[in-house]
Amino acid sequence: MVARPAPVRWGLILLVVGLVGLGAALVVWGLPLVTGSSSGDLAPTKRVPATVVAPVACGSDARDGIEIRVDGLPMRAKLDACGSREGEQLQVEVPQKLPAVTENLVVQVVGTGQAGSGLGQRLRAVLCTVAGVAGAIYALLLAGYGRRRTVTEQPA
After folding, report:
1. Mean pLDDT calculated for residue range 69-80
2. I need a surface site. Which of 60, 65, 73, 109 has the fewest CB within 10 A?
3. Where do the TM regions start and end (predicted)?
């Protein structure tokens, strides 16, 4: 049996790590498309200023009443939060396309909703997956599974 030179072995190891990482990345990247929970399902939002006008104490389904200005027109909405102070100024996310009836409109403070998910979140998941796979393979190499075992000859 001919021993392979070290560069070829490391090249094969890197090839395997790369292919496993690529496969994991494709699974993580494509999983939301298969399950139907793609970020494209989320309605686009825009940021608008809001003022708390009816604060409520926190409890089950407690939502502060706010006044927002959308395209210069004031309207009332519910903030998906509680315990704010009356008169507090916030930035909230509202749907780009408002529903016809806005009396039950619920909005979120900027940065707390799912509007930030999508490409960035999926990319972080892919990078985390690739790092985990590479780390696991590296740990196996350090543990000795990648080393060639030599058989010592025993005198008869």
Report:
1. 86
2. 60
3. 12-31, 123-145
Per the structure, the complete domain to which residue 56 belongs is given by 42-110
CA–CA gap between residue 98 and residue 8 (Å, rounded):
60
69 φ, ψ (degrees, to nearest 5): -120, 110
Structure tokens at 18: 């790369």
- What CATH number does the domain containing 102 carry? 2.40.50
Tell me the per-residue pLDDT of 126-147, one tens digit each, with 9 for 90 and over: 778 878 877 777 777 777 655 5
**Residue 70 CA, distance from chain mean position:** 29
Stated length of the chain: 156
By the 10 Å C-beta count (0-12 exposed, 13-18 middle, 19+ buried), 66 is classed as buried
Q: Is 74 inside a domain boundary?
A: yes
- Residue 54 vs residues 76, 81, 101: alpha-carbon distances, Å: 10, 12, 20
Is 2 inside a domain boundary? no
pTM tops 0.90, yes or no: no
Q: How far apart are CA 148 and CA 127, in angstroms?
A: 31
